[in-house]
Automatic annotation (TrEMBL):
Its main location: membrane. Gene3D superfamilies: 2.30.42.10, 2.70.98.90. The gene is yidC. Residues 30-82, 783-817 are annotated as: Disordered. This is Membrane protein insertase YidC. InterPro entries: Membr_insert_YidC, Membr_insert_YidC_N, PDZ, PDZ_sf, YidC/ALB3/OXA1/COX18, YidC/Oxa/ALB_C, YidC_ALB_C, YidC_periplasmic_sf. Residues 64-74 have a biased composition (Acidic residues). It comes from Stieleria neptunia. Residues 806-817 have a biased composition (Basic residues). SMART domains: PDZ.
Length: 817
């Protein structure tokens, strides 16, 4: 590889990875947007009669708080009110064929946690947590018990190891209200103790869980629980997640709802609720659950906001109802909200619906999401589509910067009521992570969410506490303010939408009209094509690592003619280098003369300097397309190089040969704060070694001090690139290794196939001639094609025999000449 070509390659690669490593701090401001679908609904006749007769309406939030723990069960419908309780829909049991397990809390009436429980053909989780290999017992929404040392269990998901555990005395399943006091030999006194006790365990192992089952006849039970893999907790509270729990991020429920406007009073700028109302996360709701004949599961929340809270702002009592419905084998949750005017006069009302937050920050310290913005993306970003703007991404870094610039108004305006109809026509809005997304979509019978009065992105974090170099992991969300609607007494208005919570599988996203969540960038055509070919190869060989190697060989093989032409051109460039240097010295102070002389030389020998670069420009879209296909493809996630539980068990992450975060300094091994990260990775070292090998094998020897210095700088640049490669996913490293090995073999092969000797040489007068043709025609008296061309270029007259002076009679006539 010649010096110029290699410089171009190294500079391009360095620029690419430097660009991918940039962190967005500035993004262009984007317009604002808003309302939900509203529908008229009638209150039941009984409610009308009660309101007219002045009879008591359903309890207010203040009254609900004191209702105790009453719980009823009628007709398969379970309901509860009063104390804080947790509920689930979905299941982890494969027999239930559910893709999700969702945990709710009635204090807030919203989502606390979503786990993806989809199984693959082998019965394992199709999407497990890749940052932990320990066993999983279940999520308990645990709280430290005030009476004994232990953790009180508040929820047990169906099909979890805790639910399937069997006690030595015959009881099946850990239950709500049990107090976990020990796991194995480890005593439990906090939620963190539960996680710590399982760190050294493996999926499939059986552990003993000691619990105290309460009541007057409290007894101790010993359960044997077989641990499972850790399912991906797509939504989780920010303080739950081990090493990915970033300081500054706040733990908040997802999809909260409250009143955005009552009468002429709106939620103040920078606030989350009306001044006379409590934080929506503290609002108490009653809850009921029901299972449909089709296997669907629904949870319904209801609360009443009394006149005591609303009269100071000119309102009367309202009743709010919301429901979440999940169907089997679905990643979509149907959500409905209804508000009933319980007052005696019409009221102007509007709803605020908060979006999801706590989306998995998986791989935030090494992954680089491809973004449509030059400013890049964070681990979690807000994405949306409106008629006016199309698909847009608002980086989490931009949201954090907005909050820091103006803490009193930390929200990033997506659109407002004055943005125009097209600007407020919202097709979808969601939170986007590297391989997963949670998004609000229109109901099944509509193509658009409708027009909102306001939409804003926001961080769910204390901006002052988010540490430097960890900003990419900031927790983000958004909110939507619906239209203000005049609701007559006894009438209702509602909003219906769906929420997608699942993987960014292209075919799956296209079904719901959110295919733009998978973004390849400028070279999407090549990315899609090569991604499809990769999947075909994987289906044949059964291993994605081998498929990546085969794909690299196929792509590089198809481009071999271009590579050979580039190699030939590089060799000719090396042969011309001494003459170009002479010209440079001759025209040291005359740039224009130097350029003309060099161009004349190149023209005379038939050398086109662009011929070496052109193949590279033709290859660039293909290489970039392949690179981005491997960067975005979720199918590489948790796919191993060899063993699913060993080294390089996740091709979408660094190979993680050895954990060194415990003993390496923070500036090297810190998550986000370190140069290299908490793991020693082997594949990036191979990549850099191969790059340097290519440089040493194909770069010509230095002819002067300047050239020698340039080569040293290029070597240092190659080593420096290793810092960027150190966090590159293993699948991409395999691609670069295969490509580099192919490149070395290709250049060695091309070198053997090139013509022997020089392509051109200099004659006695210093003119360039075709060396190959000269050898072929030596002694024949024939001129080479280059010599003939030089005659024309230099306008030399044909050579004629000249007689000796003594025999010359007269000058040749003009006719003879």
């Amino acid at each position: 590889m010649d010096r110029r070509t290699y410089t171009f390659v190294v500079a391009s690669a360095a620029f690419l990875f430097f660009y991918l490593s940039l962190r967005a701090v500035v993004a262009p401001p984007q317009p604002e947007q808003g309302p939900l679908a509203d529908q008229a609904a009638e209150v039941t006749e009984q409610d009308d009669e009660n309101a007219a007769a002045g009879e008591p309406v359903p309890p207010t939030s203040e009254e609900v708080l004191g209702d105790g723990d009453a719980e009823t069960e009628e007709g398969g419908i379970q309901s509860t009110k009063g104390a804080t309780k947790w509920f689930t829909i979905g299941s982890m049991d494969p027999a239930d064929k559910q893709n999700l397990l969702i945990t709710f809390r009635n204090q807030g009436g919203a989502i606390e946690r979503i786990e993806i429980t989809t199984r693959n053909e082998e019965g394992r989780f199709a999407y497990r947590r890749v940052d932990t290999r320990s066993g999983y017992l279940g999520y308990f929404a645990g709280r430290t018990n005030a009476q004994i040392d232990g953790v009180t269990v508040n929820v047990v998901g169906p099909g979890t190891p805790a639910a399937l555990a069997v006690a030595t005395s015959g009881e099946k399943g850990i239950q709500v209200g049990d107090v976990i006091v020990a796991i194995g030999e480890t005593p439990i006194s906090s939620v963190n103790d539960i996680q710590e006790s399982l760190v050294t365990t493996k999926p499939g192992e059986t552990v003993t869980v000691e619990v105290v089952r309460g009541g007057p006849t409290a007894k101790t039970l010993l359960f044997d629980a077989t641990l499972s893999e850790h399912p991906l907790d797509l939504i989780r509270l920010a303080n739950y997640g081990g090493e990915d729990a970033i300081p500054g991020n706040l733990a908040r429920l997802s999809c909260l709802v409250t009143l955005a406007q009552v009468g002429r009073k709106e939620i103040p700028i920078g606030e989350r609720s009306l001044q006379t109302l409590a934080d929506p996360e503290t609002q108490m709701w009653t809850a009921s659950q029901q299972t449909g004949d089709d296997g669907s599961q629904t949870i319904r929340f209801e609360t009443t906001i009394g006149s005591k809270a609303l009269q100071p702002i000119g309102g009367e009592a309202v009743r709010m109802t919301r429901s979440f419905t999940l169907n089997p084998q679905s990643y979509v949750v149907d959500m409905d909200v209804e508000v009933v005017n319980l007052g005696a006069t019409a009221q102007n009302l509007a709803l605020r619906l908060e979006g999801p937050n706590g989306i998995t920050p998986e791989g935030w310290w090494y992954s680089n999401k491809i973004s449509p913005n030059f400013s890049g993306a964070a681990a979690r970003d807000v994405v949306y589509r409106t008629t006016a703007d199309g698909h847009r991404l608002v980086s989490g870094m931009t949201l954090l910067k907005e909050a820091r610039n103006d803490p009193k108004d930390p929200n990033y305006a997506i659109f407002a009521s004055d943005s125009g109809e097209a600007g407020r026509a919202l097709d979808y809005i969601g939170v986007d992570a590297q391989y997963f997304a949670v998004a609000f979509m229109p109901p099944e019978d509509k193509t658009s969410l409708g027009a909102y009065d306001r939409a804003s992105g926001t961080i769910v974090a204390d901006e002052e506490d988010v540490e430097k170099h960890k900003e990419r992991a900031v927790n983000v969300s958004y909110f939507l303010n619906g239209k203000t609607i005049e609701v007559p007494p006894g009438q209702a208005f509602g909003q219906s939408l769906r929420m997608y919570a699942g993987p960014k599988e292209p075919e799956l996203l296209e079904q719901y009209g959110i295919g733009d969540f998978v973004y390849y960038g400028w070279f999407s055509f090549f990315s899609s094509l090569l991604s499809g070919l990769l999947h075909i190869l994987q289906s044949i060989v059964g291993n994605y690592a081998v498929a990546i190697v085969l794909l690299t060989v196929i792509v590089r093989g198809c481009m071999f003619p271009l590579s050979r032409n580039a190699a030939v051109n590089a060799q000719r460039m090396q042969e011309l280098a001494p003459e170009m240097k002479k010209i440079a010295e001759k025209y040291k102070d005359d740039m224009e003369g130097r350029l003309k002389a060099q161009q004349a030389l190149q023209k005379r020998v038939g050398f086109n300097p662009l011929a070496g670069c052109l193949p590279m420009f033709l290859q660039l879209p293909i290489f970039m397309g392949l690179y981005r296909a491997l960067s975005v493809d979720i199918d590489l996630r948790q796919k191993p190089l060899w063993s699913p539980n060993g080294w390089a068990s996740n091709l979408a992450a660094p190979d993680q040969f050895m954990y060194w975060g415990d003993w390496m300094p923070e500036f090297i091994a810190g998550r986000g704060t370190g140069w290299l990260g908490p793991y020693l990775n082997i594949l990036p070292i191979f990549v850099v070694v191969l790059f340097i090998t290519q440089q040493k094998l194909f770069m010509p020897p230095a002819t002067d001090e300047q050239t020698a210095m340039t080569q040293k700088v290029m070597t240092i640049m190659t080593l420096f690139m290793g810092l960027f490669f150190f966090r590159v996913p293993a699948g991409l490293c395999i691609y670069f290794i295969a490509s580099s090995m192919w490149g070395i073999g290709e250049r060695l092969l091309v070198k053997k196939t090139l013509p022997k000797g020089k392509h051109f040489d200099l004659d006695a007068d210093g003119d360039v001639i075709d060396a190959v043709a000269t050898k072929k025609n030596a002694g024949s008296g024939k001129k080479t094609l280059t010599e003939k061309l030089l005659d024309q270029v230099n306008q030399k007259p044909p050579e004629t025999p000249v007689a000796p002076p003594s025999k010359r009679k007269r000058p040749p006539s003009k006719k003879k000449r």
